[in-house]
Amino acid sequence: MKTYFYLGVGIIIMVIVGLLGYGVYLNQRGENEIEQRMENLRLPLNGAVVQEREIQPYVELELANFYCDDMADVIARENGRITQVFVEKHGMVTAGKPILQLVDEDIPLKIKQADSDIMEAEAQLLKARNSYNRYSQLVEYHAISLEKYDEAAAAYKAAQARMDNLTAQREQLLMRQSRQMVMSSIDGEVLRLYQSEGAYVTAGTPVALVGDFSKLYFTSPVVDEQAKRMVIGQPVSLTIDAGTSVLGGEALPKPYGANYSVGNMGEDQIFSAMVIKITPDLAEPATVRQVIWQVDNRVGLLEPGTYRKVRLHANAARKCLAVPVAAFTDESHERVAVVESDGSLGFRDVKTGITNGTYIEIISGLQAGDIVITSDTEGVTAGTEVELTLEEN
Description:
Number of strands: 23
Mean pLDDT: 85
């Protein structure tokens, strides 16, 4: 009985060992098959050859603050009541042109009083001068004392000083009278009239706002490499996306209500802009520079304020090494998927430049002839074999 028992146990153990061995064999075989299939798997992807392309670049600014260099309040420099306004809102004026007339009734009376005082002072001065001249002759002959001579000289100097003082006061009154004609300090359009005829204003009160919006300005930061490619004075085209900006409606909003000029195209208007200054100067080392732009606004559509989605379009195409925007795997456009020399998928960090919305310039990280992947590579790891379909250039 024991013999049969041990024999049965032995058979059971042999069966268990056999089953375990067979399981290991199947598992290893499955892994080998999976590995072999993965090695033979080639992921189908689209790609494009890195090559030189002509790009007409544009830059989009999310926000741009337009400002005006030629806008100023016209200030009343004297007290007075407004008797006449010579301009209307939206009227054009030049520097030195009258805006309005003030009247201070005290000034003419003070001028008359000054004239009377001057006449009296002239008589006193003449008397003092004659006395001084006589005493000057007498003192040479020792006919009078030096004390008398000194008194005559002092009286003459005092009369002359009083005359000069009264003359200066009269000139000051005449200047104040001339300031009652309030003049524009700059050329431009009358954007606001703060006061109306009959109002009394004091010195220092703004009476009108005059501005010239034919040229507006804004600034933008740029990296050094892009700044070095900009040409001061070279025109570019500027557009504003009305659908997502502060524009809205059929025409641009005008907070100051300035006039629209003939020939404007509203939201479809293309403005001319150019770089007028780069700071720091390109000769100085800097990582980021500030660019000052000047916008030709003779159509009168723009006014100082903040605009969204401002696009600057180059007027001429430029040839450069470029890849499709779809080749980038990140929103900052600093990484692309490429086909390595062994046919597998790889990733590279790149430095980019200008764009036209479809292609982006490659400054470094790729060279002509490289192949970039334009299909979605999310979740795909480096080293994956790819089955490539090249896009037509």
